[in-house]
Amino acid sequence: MLELTALGVRAGVRGQGFRILLLVTLVLLGVSFLAGNFSGRQPLTVALDVGLSGLRFVLLLMTLLWVQDLLARDIERKTIYFLLAYPITRSQFLFSRFLAIAFLSSGALILVGFALWLVLFFFGSSHPQLQPPALGMPYLIALLGILLDLLVVIAFAIFLASISTTPYLPLLLGFAFALAARGLGPSISHLNSARSDPLHQAIFSPVLEHAYAWLPDLSRLDWRALTLYSLTPDFTAMALAAVNAAAYVALLLTLAAVVFQRRNFT
């Protein structure tokens, strides 16, 4: 299984993914720098906020593309026959693909996160701010939250790939799943606030409350406020969010393995 994981990582590195990632990284850093320059009072905070938002969006697309390239297209092109010829079970193959995509996503997160940190560090030295954001441990915690978010999306996309007959279904539904899960918590909070429209609350609250029972709240993994405003971490809430994400990943991979084990590729 480790050999298949290494093969998956090499295939992901040799593909177009990392070339696209480098190009998008340069664009992201440039947009963050320009956004900071447009803010007169908190340039570094604005640049960091824009950079982290762009980072979450870019890595979401990259992970879904890797799921499509390393699993969905193998099924479509029937090259999975050769991969399953290894002396491993289908569950081990599926888990090796998850590990490969998780490793690629982690490497991309470290690469882009470090590049963003360098831009913020040198940008902050030329644009001093009265209360600068925390670029130490809180920044690493924010990146960890992004990684956990991506692992949940990867597991969901792999589950879709295990039951799908088209390589584009995991990409499209995985993107929709990520947007819905990331916006679930803020949407419920807004509807429960005093500023919400009573009509909207009556219509959408029952739907979102039912969705909360099966859809993970990925907004709980958005820990950027710790680094943006130097807040004190709530480790209990963060630990519960991490455990919830890990449980959801385990559940999705288990379901994917059960379906994949019984799937007929002939």
Report on this model:
This protein has 266 residues and is an all-alpha fold. The protein has one domain (2-262). The chain is 79% helix and 0% strand. The protein contains ten helices and no strands. It has helices at 2-14, 17-37, 43-76, 80-83, 90-126, 137-163, 169-192, 198-214, 224-229, 235-262. The two termini are 24 Å apart. 37% of the residues are buried.
Summarize it.
By secondary structure, this protein is mainly α. The chain has ten helices and no strands. It has one domain (2-262).
Indicate how many domains the architecture comprises.
1
Note the overall shape: globular
**Helix content bin:** over 70%
* Structural class computed from helices and strand pairing: mainly alpha
* SSE string, helices as H and strands as E: HHHHHHHHHH
What is the distance, rounded to the nearest whole angstrom, between the alpha carbons of the first and last residues? Answer: 24 Å
Main beta-sheet strand count, sense and barrel state: none
What would you report as the Rg, rounded to the nearest angstrom?
A: 20 Å
How many β-strands, per DSSP?
Answer: 0
Strand content: under 5%
Give me the number of helical elements: 10
State the low-pLDDT regions, or none. Answer: none
Average pLDDT confidence is 82
